[in-house]
Amino acid sequence: MRKTKWSFLLTLMLVLSVFVAACSGGGEATPEETPADEGTTTEGEATTPEEPASDVAQVLNVLETAEIPTMDTVMGTDAVAFEWGNAVFEGLYALGENAQPVPGVAESHEVSEDGKVYTFKLREDAVWSDGSQVVADDFIFTWQKVVNPETGSQYNFIMGDILNANSIMAGEMTPDQLGVKAIDETTLEVTLEQPVDYFLSLTAFPVYFPQKREFVEAQGENYALEVENLLFNGPFVMTEWKHEEGWVLKKNPNYWDKDVVKLEEINIKVVKDVATGVNLYDTGKVDRAGLTSEFVDKYRNDPAFTTIEETVVFWFKMNQENEALANENIRKAIALGVDRQGLTDVILNNGSIPAYTAVPKGFVSHPETGEEFNDKYGNFYEFDADLALEHWNKGLEELGLTELSLEILGGDTETAKKSDAYFKDQLEKHLPGLTVTLLEVPFKQRLELDETQQYDLQVAGWGPDYLDAMTFVDLWVTGGGHNMMSYSNPEFDQLIEDSKTNLTGVERFEAMQEAARIVMEDAAFSPLYQRARAVLIQPYIKDMFVLPFGPDYTYKWASIEK
Amino acid sequence: MAKYILKRVAFSFITLLIIASITFFLMKLMPGTPFTAQEKLTEVQIEILNEKYNLNDPVPVQYAKYIGNMLKGDLGVSFQFDNRNVTDLILDRIGPSAHLGLQTLIFGAIAGIIFGVIAALKQNTMWDYGSTFLAVLGKSIPNFVFAGMLQYFIGVKLGWFPVAFWEGPSYTVMPTIANAMFTLAVAARFMRTEMIEVLSSDYIVTAKAKGLSSAVVTIKHGLRNGLIPLVTVLGPLAAGLLTGSLVIERIFAIPGLGEQFVRSITTNDFPMIMGITLFYSVFLIFVILLVDILYGIIDPRIRLAGGNK
């Protein structure tokens, strides 16, 4: 009772003070003024002369937008699961700066002449957190689990390149027929269906991480449910996991490369609301916070403000079952008729850039010359109202129509709705006679409509699953599981087929460039923008590398230098 | 009384069964699969996964299985959180939600009653208008606006209370206040109206005439009678509060159940949707029963059905 009395008094005061604060706040301190002075403090801290790293507490405080769906790397499907799995486990290789594969559990590897057999030599000092050695059998056990349809791993397709994997996933073969074998405890031999240029980067993907056979089998249903049901082999170990609230990682003292790991502790808190994250950042509780477009103008000049270009692209899928969209001129008119710069600068306002290519910018480069994938053919369909109109009129003529109405299928988030309205406005303005209607539905429903191909234009996005242009170009093969717009070009199909089977290296890269050119010239779909995210990251955090797929960041090399 | 409660409990089970059935069939009408990586999956993969999770069975078979398991107390395993039991998931998260809800309810109701009584006693004075003003604000300003303001001004600017998280008593203050505004407003308005009516009734005049002090009259006779309608409103409100507020939990980063109400639906996490719906229903039914019983205690004029036989 006494407690209630107290809290009542307290609250009474607070309620009053809130109104007082609210009134005065509205009058003098505009929100824009506040970050500026906080910004200078940050700057002051950041520019203090460099001290030896050992004097600064190597503790990183970050936010995550959701609870970890699973710590079982085999079952992970999203960035949250991948990010923290990547911090506490390690595969044969790991992705370092610029997403280059660096040795992990494997100290070296050899590739056979035909590029199909990889022999990995595992290091002897790679150990689990119970002290036992990470052995080749741990990989075999885990990979067989991934491809076993009984497991229900949704990301198992990422192993499709390993010999027999696809047949096992379809239930036509048994998991023990997977193309992996242990030559001895520290030698793992992997046989692929065909040469795969990017296989090393695949082994850095969390689904490829090892799990200790005896431990997982002993844990049974409980494996990975809590900290005590897990064994780690990565740069960090998880020491505390409060569901929906947060988790704590500590430096792994048994990690083979522990001298490189500088962070002693990472505290992660679940904060779903962007404004809350920003407030926590402003009060110094966290070192990193994501921003949405409405916060960008406020923080643009903050030294901690940065935009990170992602390799996620959004585009119009154009359903070619629709008679009008089966017409190439109509598709080209649509591709040309949207001013993407206006979209990225005004609507998105978070560092996103216009997209004019089938493969995102800055994702992959030529194996020999190092030239960026898209440099060869440049941009397609940059905004051009006159050219759009020309194609439009030609298209209408071919169809024998004077007007047309199309529906844009899009998501139901704030950003999606704003973007859709912009697309409608742009298209109707530049293509006379076109009426655009919008259908905004929840994510799952959009996927359903995509799978049953019930749409005209659809705003859809795609992020890469491995470090190779193929993850983007093979979407559009005839009858492909993600095509779903009845696009078909035999020449394109052939190039993809060749790239997947008998080509390697430069030849393969160039074949994919050709394929990307063809699909763009056909205007099979129309890229709209390449997403970026605006983030506040304290400048004293060094070497927290951004990864283009799977996890967002890697922490192994990160440090705090104040 | 016991007979009455037993009868009510029996009816509750039927209600629950109906709720479970309706939810189940509505859920089956939702588009999409419960698989979190659905955008990456091809039709063939979805088919294989459906087979594994028995989602290819005819709906009546799935229904029978579900109800059977439910009666055994098994709510199934979540799709969003791999291999995690729905019952555990709910129990894990209900703690903070119930804590916040209870605090909100107690604070909101008591503060509301006090504001209401003051307003009634000092009718048409500044006290009354002030309390009315607060109540209007509380009812009309959505709690997320209020929560955001509290967080920014009290948490960031003044630094009196932690901005977010759930780590001790001081962390509960701002969420409680923000969450309680609606309850407070409702309670204050109800209380004022009832008190004014009660205070002008004959038996209060009689009590005063008998020479009882005005404090005794107000508390013993006025307040007790004024509380009756409030119990009706607070009951269902309590069920909502104790099972978590999506908005408040989101803004103050409280690890509660609130968000799952929405998230389980948008992700098609079928077992979780069923689990949460049932949990909420049980709670609501229980609270309504409790309110009916409380009636009898607060107001002797009300006799429960069968009580007089």
TrEMBL record, chain A:
Annotated localization: Cell envelope
Pfam families reported for this sequence: SBP_bac_5 (PF00496)
Location, primary (coarse class): other
Keyword Protein biosynthesis: no
Domain Solute-binding protein family, first and last residues per copy: 100-481
Region of interest (Disordered), ranges: 26-52
Family (UniProt): Belongs to the bacterial solute-binding protein 5 family.
Gene3D superfamilies: Dipeptide-binding Protein, Domain 1, Dipeptide-binding Protein, Domain 3, Periplasmic binding protein-like II
Keywords, in A-Z order: Signal, Transport
Provenance organism: Chengkuizengella axinellae
Domain of life: Bacteria
Comp. bias intervals (Low complexity): 37-51
Protein name: Peptide ABC transporter substrate-binding protein
Signal peptide: 1-21
TrEMBL record, chain B:
Topological relation to the membrane, as annotated: Multi-pass membrane protein
Location(s) in or outside the cell: Cell membrane
Pfam families: BPD_transp_1, BPD_transp_1_N
PROSITE patterns assigned: ABC_TM1
Location (main, coarse): membrane
Keyword tags: Cell membrane, Membrane, Transmembrane, Transmembrane helix, Transport
Residues annotated as transmembrane: 9-27, 100-121, 133-153, 173-191, 227-252, 272-295
PANTHER family documented for this protein: DIPEPTIDE TRANSPORT SYSTEM PERMEASE PROTEIN DPPB-RELATED
Protein's UniProt name: ABC transporter permease
UniProt source species: Chengkuizengella axinellae
Species lineage: Bacteria, Bacillati, Bacillota, Bacilli, Bacillales
